[in-house]
Amino acid sequence: MAKGKTTGSKAASNSSKTLTSDSTSGKSKTAAGSALSQTDAPNKTTSKPAAKSASKVVSDGRTSNTSKSAAGSALSQKESGKGSKGGAKKASAKKS
Questions:
Q1: Residue 52 and residue 95: Cα distance in Å, rounded?
Q2: Cβ neighbours around 12 below 10 Å, total
Q3: Is 4 contained in some domain?
Q4: Given 7, 21, 67, 87, which is the most exposed site by the fewest CB atoms within 10 A?
Q5: Domain that holds residue 72
Q6: Dihedral through CA 87, CA 84, CA 64, CA 67, nearest 10?
Q7: How much is the average pLDDT of 9-26?
Q8: 19 close to 67: Cβ distance less than 8 angstroms
């Protein structure tokens, strides 16, 4: 768990801008909402669906830096370990 991490003021501001933009994708808004909900909430973490959306936002070349800032904050607060363990199981299962 990303215990103790919270969304900083700049990322929170970018999250707010992302959520209120009419031209922002749903994935960007999901990531921004997750980041904004973790402002002053050190015990909250980003859910798997929100982390997946945030990952796509960060890697999309068409996404604004404002949305990427919000998505990056959400990703930095995702639960650690669970995603990588599941991926390793899937990879080994495919090899069999």
A1: 24
A2: 20
A3: no
A4: 87
A5: 9-95
A6: 120
A7: 94
A8: no
Cβ–Cβ < 8 Å for 75, 54:
yes
User: At residue 12, what is the residue type?
Assistant: A
Query: What contacts 13, CB < 8 A, 6 or more positions away?
Result: none
pLDDT tens per residue across span 35-62: 999 999 999 999 999 999 999 999 999 9
- The pTM of this model reads 0.73
Task: Look at residue 1 and tell me if it is in a domain.
Answer: no
How many structural domains is the chain composed of?
Answer: 1
Look-up of token digits 């949305």: 67
Residue type, 17: K
Distance CA 69, CA 18 (A): 10
